[in-house]
Amino acid sequence: MVDIFCCLLIFFIVTYNFAREEMALDVKVPQAKEGKEVRRNLQELIINVKSDGAIVLNRQTLTSDQLRAKLLQISQIYPDQAVILRGDETVNYRYIVEVLDVCRSANIWNVAFATAKPAP
Questions:
Q1: In the chain, what are the domains?
Q2: First to last CA, the chain
Q3: Cα separations (Å) of 42 from 45, 55, 74, 95, 118?
Q4: What is the reported pLDDT for 43?
Q5: Is 35 exposed, middle or buried (0-12, 13-18, 19+ CB in 10 A)?
Q6: Cα distance between residue 54 and residue 41, in whole Å
Q7: What is the structure's pLDDT at 35?
Q8: Alpha carbons 99 and 69: distance in angstroms, whole number
Q9: Helical H runs in 1-120?
Q10: Tens of pLDDT along 72-113?
Q11: Tens-place pLDDT, residues 64-80
Q12: Which of the pair, 14 or 105, is modelled with greater confidence?
């Protein structure tokens, strides 16, 4: 029981650190008039889709199959896993749909899209 607790604690600490760093990646999300500053959960995964369609999770560039494998592992442990999808404002929409398909095939349904607040 202690081993499971330690593993979970390590997972959340590492995920939190990666989540903070993910926001600094070279991905400029589109602005939304109704965009709000949202407090992030420790448990959220942040998937970045760069302008060239590259998928980045925890600072690792992954193929769709690699992302699916990771998400399947996570969803088996955390069935309600939340994912924040940060798509660059210039990315082709088909790459976003591809990531959504991967999430769905891995039983991840709790997906939100990141946007930026409009400049004042």
A1: 2-113 (3.30.420.270)
A2: 51
A3: 8, 21, 14, 26, 25
A4: 74
A5: middle
A6: 24
A7: 53
A8: 13
A9: 2-22, 64-77, 93-105
A10: 999 999 999 999 999 999 999 999 999 999 999 999 999 999
A11: 999 999 999 999 999 99
A12: 105
Contact between 89 and 5 under an 8 Å Cβ cutoff? The reply is no
Percent of the chain clearing pLDDT 70 (strictly above): 65
**In the numeric block, which tokens belong to residue 61?**
């560039």
37 exposure class (CB count in 10 Å sphere: 0-12, 13-18, 19+): exposed
Torsion of CA 63, 78, 46, 107, to 10 degrees: 50
Compute the distance between CA of residue 61 and CA of residue 79 in angstroms, rounded to an integer: 24
SS3 10: helix
